[in-house]
Design a protein that fits this description.
By secondary structure, this protein is an alpha+beta fold. It is built from two helices and nine strands. The protein has helices spanning 25-42, 72-92, and strands at 18-21, 56-61, 103-124, 131-138, 151-154, 176-179, 185-190, 195-197, 206-217. Strands 1, 2, 3, 4, 5, 6, 7, 8 and 9 form a nine-stranded antiparallel sheet that branches. The model has no long low-confidence stretch (mean pLDDT 94). InterPro entries: CHP02466. Pfam families: 2OG-FeII_Oxy_5. This is 2OG-Fe(II) oxygenase family protein.
Length: 218
């Protein structure tokens, strides 16, 4: 190699994640938790959505319309979440949207998880939407080391591990990314990402509100 050669590193196909705090969490938390537990008390089966029940253990899941309930606090939470997703989508797509384009974000599915000791959700992704989010209403004891309850995200490069030698060692540290939630946090991510909720061990329920969102232009 010529001593004057310049090797340029180009990192492509990055996957954006966004983490923020629910602005009105202190105000909304108790009302949202009350709504979650009220709906949970009405459930006739643990997985009311009836979606992949064998992938979920020791948790309660609502139907997919939780944020559609006619409750002022739920409606406010939905409004804030849609505004956050729209802000993110507009930012990440800035170079690809026409300058005069207007858009709205619409949460098309939303549900809660109330996870008890030993509960988990196997690996999955969310079709039929562009962005997904998890609002950690009350992460329980997830923050304590060894108690689990983390959300794990998986490398979307499906062919990355087809061959392994010392030249691919750098991939080993990028296979998964574990997110430790704290109360009031929201994580928003592209829908194509596979993810799971690792087994949770704690005396307090782990309560989250999850949602799927689409962007419509006009």
């Amino acid at each position: 190699m010529n001593d004057n050669s310049i090797i340029e590193e180009i990192n492509t196909w990055t996957t954006p994640f966004y983490v923020t705090q629910m602005p009105d969490h202190a105000f909304l938390k108790d009302a949202l938790l009350a709504a979650v537990y009220q709906q949970k008390s009405l459930q006739t089966t643990a997985i009311e959505s009836r979606i992949a029940p064998k992938a979920k253990h020791a948790l309660h899941e609502s139907t997919l319309e939780f944020l559609e309930l006619a409750d002022a606090n739920i409606m406010e939470a939905k409004r804030v979440l849609e505004e956050l997703v729209l802000e993110i989508a507009a930012s990440v797509n800035k170079a690809f949207w026409p300058e005069d384009m207007e858009a709205d974000a619409h949460i098309i599915e939303s549900w809660y998880h109330v996870t008890q000791n030993g509960g988990y959700h196997d690996v999955h992704s969310h079709p039929n939407c562009s962005w997904c989010g998890i609002y950690y209403l009350s992460p329980g004891d997830s923050k304590e080391e060894g108690n689990g309850g983390l959300n794990r995200f998986y490398d979307p490069r499906v062919n990355a591990e087809h061959y392994a030698d010392p030249g691919t060692a750098y991939l080993g540290g990028q296979g998964v990314w574990d997110f430790t939630p704290t109360e009031g946090q929201i994580i928003i991510f592209p829908s194509y990402l596979k993810h799971s909720a690792l087994p949770y061990f704690g005396d307090t329920d782990r309560v989250v509100i999850a949602f799927n969102c689409i962007i419509e232009a006009y």
